[in-house]
Specification:
The chain has 9 helices and 8 strands. It is α/β, with parallel strands linked by helices. It has 2 domains: about 140 residues, Rossmann fold (3-Layer(aba) Sandwich), CATH 3.40.50; about 60 residues, DNA polymerase, domain 1. The strands form 2 sheets. A 6-stranded parallel beta sheet has the order 5-4-1-6-7-8, with helices on both faces. Helix 1 crosses helix 3, helix 4 packs parallel to helix 9 and helix 6 crosses helix 7.
Amino acid sequence: MKNESAEFLMAKYDYVIFDFDGTVVDTGEGILKSLQYSFKEMGREVPDLNDLKKFIGPPIYYSYTTFYGVSEDEVGDYIKKYRERYKVKGIYECALYDGMVELLDELKKNGIKIGIASSKPLHLIYSVADYLKITDKFDAIVGVKIDDSNHSSKTQLILDAMEEMGATDKSKVLMVGDRLFDLDGAAGAGVDSCGAIWGYGNKEEFIEHNATYIVYKTAEILDLALNNAE
C-alpha cells in the first residue's frame, strides 16, 4: 500500500536495505525476556512484555534512558545484564518472518542487491543470521560495532550499507523497516522508505513519519523493487 501522503514513484529499485529486528527476523521473544532479566537483576520492577516492545527499533541505550529513566551511570550495567541472558539464550528465541527467505531469494535472483542496516550490535546480527542460515543472502550487513554505543545514527548505518553495496544513485535504493527510526533514517540518507506492518510499528506511525510505502506482506516488497506494484 502506498502512503496516502506520498507521491508514487515508478522507478525500479536496484538496492533494498532491511532493518533486522522486527523486519527480517522476529527476535522479540529473546529481546523482551532478556530485558525483563536485566530489570530483575538490577533490582527494578520488571516491566510487562508488551510495554517493553518499545525497545525494539531504537538503540538499546536510548530505550533504557528514555523510556525507563535509567541513569547515565547505571545504563551500562543494565545493558551488560541484558546481554548476559541474550547471548546465551535469547539469541535463539527468534524466527524468520513468513515469506522472508523467499523474498530474499527472489530479490537476489532478479539481480537486486540486499543489505542490512541495524542498530543491533554487528556480532549479534551475524550470530542470529548464522543461526537462521541467511547470512550469505546479504551483500552488506551493517550494525553497531561497539555494544554499548549510545549514538548510533540510523542514517549513517544506511549510508554505510549503501557504500558497501556500491549504491551511488539514491533513487535506486529502498529502505525497509518496522519503526519510525528506519523511516527517519531513510529520509536522512535521501532514499525511499517502506514501513513493514508485520513488525513492531503501525500504519499511523508510518504515515506520520512519511513512509514512501506501507506493506503488509513480504511479497509486496518484491513488487516494489521490480516495479510491479499497483
